[in-house]
Structure formats: C-alpha cells, structure tokens
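Just wondering, does anyone understand these tokens?
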Amino acid sequence: MSDDNTSEKAVKPRKIQTPPGIHDILPKEHDYFTFIKKVVRHRARQSGFRRISTPILEFTEVFDRSIGDSTDIVQKEMYTFEDRGGRSMTLKPEGTAGVVRAYVQHGMKEFPQPVELYYIEPHFRYDRPQKGRYRQFWQFGFEIIGESDPALDVQCIYIANKIFEDLGVANRLTLQINNIGSPKSRAKYVEAIENFYVGKERSLCENCLARLETNPLRLLDCKEEDCQILAQLAPKFEQFRSEEDNHFHNLVKEFLDELEIKFVENEQLVRGLDYYTQTVFEFWDSETGSQNAVGGGGRYDGLVEELGGESTPGTGFSVGIERLIYHMKQANIQVPSKDNVHVFVAQLGDLAKKKCLRLMDQLRERGVKTVGALGKGSMKAQMKLADKFGVPYTLIMGITEVREGTVIIRDMAKGQQRFVKMEQVVEEVVKLIGEENLDLYSPGEVTVMP
C-alpha cells in the first residue's frame, strides 16, 4: 500500500521574480545610470543647485493636497496603505510635492531666495507597464522655489535641454510648451470646457467620462482618437488668459528664442497634476509624440501655500531616467564605463595567497583596478576567469615565484610573459596601464571645526 504523501507529485515552489513593472538594474544598465547621474550632477553644480533627497514614504495627504485628489495619479496609480499606527502612507509617485513639503517643514523660506534644489530618486506608480514605463522608476528633477519670473521657467528648460545634449538625445526630442494661466483664468476656461462637452458624452472614452466630472482639463490630452478630435475642436486657452498671463507667456517664448531653443506651442498641453499654473512644458519623442514624453514640468505658484507654507512661487521639471536610457540605446549612444578591470591576480598555495592579498591592496591604492580569484584552486581555472574578465594583464604567483621573490606579468593579448621582482611589480604595472588610466580615489580633505 503506497503512502498518499509519497505518491502525490511534489509541488514545485513558485519561481520568485520581481513584481510586474518592477525591474532589477543590472551592472550593464548601471553604466547608463552612472553616466546620466554624472551629467545631471555636473549641470546642477554649474547652475548652483544643491541636492536634496526626500523619503520614499510620505503621509498620503502630501499628495492628495498637492497633486489633486481628482487626478489619475491619486485615484488610480498611488501605492497607498495604512501603517501599524493606522496612518495612511504612500510611496511617492512624483518628486515635487516632497521637495516642497521639505521646503515648508525646514523653514527654507529663511534661506537666500530662490532656493534651487535637485534630486535623483526612485518613484512608484501603479501604472500599466510598457516600453520605458515602469511601476518603480527613477527620475531626476530640478526645483526653483521662492521667485516668480518667466526667466526661471526658461532656466529649467535650458538645463533640461543641456542635459539632453550631453547625453546625445536632444535631436530625438521636441519641446512642447503652453500657458494654462492663473487659477482665476483657468477656472473660467474649465467652465467653458465643461459647457463644450455637454451633449458629446457618447463620444468620450470611459476615462474621459470620469474626467469630465472631476478634472475636465485632462480631456485635452487624452490619447484616444475620438477624444483627440473633440479636444482639437474645444475652446483654446488663449481665449481665456488674462493680459498678465499672456505677458508672462510671451516673455517665456522670447527668452527661449534668445537661447535658440526650438519649441512647439501646444494649446492642448495641460500636464496631469493640479498644482501647475502659467507655464507648462514637456519633452516629447519626436516620432511618437506625447505617448512617450521623456519629461516635463512647469510653474506651481500655489503649491507651497497648499502644503502649509506662505504664498511662495515655484517652478521645476523632472525627467524619467529609464526613458532617457531607451533613447540613448536607440541612438546607439555608448557610455564610458569605469568598471573594466586592469589586472587579474592568479596564485597557487596559501603562501602565494598571502602575498597576493598584500599585492592586490598595493595595486588598488595606486589606482590599478585589480581582481583575484582567491577561492579558485587550479591555475587553469584562474586563467580562464582572467580571459572572461578581459583584463590586459595577469599577474601569476606560484610556489616558485614566492620562494624567489618574483611575479610573472602576462600580457593577455600578446600571450607573452616575463618575471619581475616583487618589490618592482606595482610600479611596473602602473607603467603598463598608464598614469592617465588609473582609477585614483580621493575623498577630499575634511575640516574639524573647533
């Protein structure tokens, strides 16, 4: 009689993978991330921006009050849950609200104005995964808080454009701009939009039917064909802007012309967040348009007050890093990598291993990128590993070399090798690698305050 437990097929454990829309960043991909971060930090330092990092978790109220509880992000896309204290918490879906909350909380109104900040952070939205769109995604962003001037809006656009040029993708993007006016003029426009769509509800998609009740401006940037046709026939923003709005917008365009930054005026561009006023802009894929916007931003003059501060203007932008990487790959942009190893150290025997530990440390301190297969037994296995690393040179040390105080330097490309005295090997390797190729690290000097 067979045991039921043994006769049943063993159930295989479920394969553990990342959740949908959330991905690992592997070493090759990090080459792009590292290069983009380097470019962003360089342009930020040039322009006087200081880096800020806000928490991944915020009280949900931060986003309800800033983004707007009628937006798609708040209604459909936020990762929100109650913590053990019963408080509603949210993984941050965008960066500006957290930065402005920090501005208010830490009294940055006392800093020299405007306060210029930038960030490079992960964000989270329960969005439909697709090309360049993930549920955990990285953005960099720049914020200027404390002054209202169209020149500052253009400064943001200029920095973004410079970064795109540095990364080799500027020619793949088009700048779309619009002015959505002050809250007062926008309220009149929203009323006109609502009146225009009366009787046309049957032509709207399901999402737009909901937006008509909660966020009518979003009807203008729907991607559905029938909704786009109606949006083109709808009233235009320019009919409802005040003289001040138009003056502000005209100055933005004049400043862009002065900097020779090309743009397209787009009356249907509204952006998906409630906090925007006046200038809004996006960088679109030149071929696919708004479906694959790389980034965007605009002015948010009421956001500081909305989050508990005094009435304070602000402007900024953010860019999706994964989408940038997609464009860089499409443009065949190769980024430099500092991860290529200079030297592989192979050894046999415990005594040789001891000597190698010291030698590897000396080489690394001189800027020679060095690896060693300290756990491998045979020399054959170690040399195969050296080939996989693609190193130009391998240092070989066995029992004989230890006894004689020498090291073998093998040129992997030429297949030639020679003996060098142990005390001379570091300098000899430095000469072979070249001073200009060394990876020297200096943390800088620290000052002890009295």
The first strand starts at residue 50 and ends at 51.
